[in-house]
Amino acid sequence: MPVSTTPQGTPSWRLHTTRTQWLQYLGWLAGACLFLLCWKVISDNTMWVFVEDAGRQGSDLISRMLPPQWSYAHRLWGPMWDTLNIATLGTLLGIAMAFPVAFLAARNTSPHPLVRSAALLVIVSSRSINSLIWAMLLVTILGPGVLAGIIAIALRSIGFIGKLLYEAIEEIHPTPVEAISATGAGRMQVMGYGVLPQVMPAFAGISVYRWDINIRESTVLGLVGAGGIGLQLNAAINSLAWNQVSVIFVMIFVTVLASEWISARVRHAII
C-alpha cells in the first residue's frame, strides 16, 4: 500500500485497486519477457567459443603492450597537437553556428513557429549523427585530413550547444525582458540587455564543457582518416605494434585528464 503526501505535508495511505495491481503485475511480466527475448537474440548471435577464450586473449594482448615503447613518443607530439587543434577549432566553429540557432529555437526568442521548427530540426539532425559518422562523410567529400575532422566536430557540436543553450534561454527570468520592452526598446536591444546577460554564464559553461568532450571525440577521428593522433593509432593497430599502441593510449589518457582539469577550472571561474 503506497504512501502519498498531502499538501499539508502529512502522509496518507493510498489503496491500490485490484485492476491497478493486475496492471502492475502484467507490466513486470512484460518487462521480464522482453528481457528474456533480448537475451535470447543476443545469445543466438554471439559466438560463445570466443567469449570463453576472451580472458586468455586479453591477457596475451596486454602482455604485448608492455613495456611501452617510449622512444615512439616523440613522433606523437605533432599528431596530438593536430588533435587539440581539431577539438578547439571545431568547438569554436560549432559555437559560432549554434549560438544563432539556439535563439531561433527558443520559444521566447524565435521570430516565428516555422523558424523555430527549422532550428529544432537543425539541432536534432546534428545530435542524431555521431562525430565519427560526420568524419566518414566529410573524408569522402573533402578528402582525408584535419579539415574534415574540424568540420565533423563542429557539426556535432551544433546540436549539443544549441539544445542546452536554447533551454537556458527559455528558462530566463522574464522580468528584465518585460522592463526593457516597456521602455520602447527594439527587439535587438531587448536581446542584448535583457536576454544575453542572463544566458552568458550558462553559454560559457556549455562551450567549455563541449570543448572537453570534443578533446575525447577528436582522438578517434583519425581512425577514418580525419587527422589527429587517431591516424597513428590506426597505423599501430594495423601493424600489430602493440607497444606503440600503449604509448598512444597513455598520451591520450594524459591529454584527456589535462583537458578535464582545465575545463573544470574554467567552469568554476565562470560559474
UniProtKB/TrEMBL annotation:
Transmembrane annotation, as ranges: 22-42, 86-106, 220-237, 243-262
Domain ABC transmembrane type-1: 80-263
Secretion signal, residue range per the UniProt entry: none
Database matches in InterPro entries: MetI-like, MetI-like_sf, PhnE/PtxC
Topology of this chain in the membrane: Multi-pass membrane protein
Cellular compartments per GO CC: plasma membrane
Keyword Transport carried by entry: yes
Compartments, as annotated in UniProt: Cell membrane
Gene3D superfamilies: MetI-like
Entry superkingdom: Bacteria
GO molecular function terms listed in the Swiss-Prot or TrEMBL record: ABC-type phosphonate transporter activity
Keyword terms of this UniProt record: Cell membrane, Membrane, Transmembrane, Transmembrane helix, Transport
UniProt cross-references to Pfam families, sorted A to Z: BPD_transp_1
NCBIfam families for the chain: PhnE
Protein family membership: Belongs to the binding-protein-dependent transport system permease family.
Protein name from the UniProt record: Phosphonate ABC transporter, permease protein PhnE
Species: Billgrantia desiderata
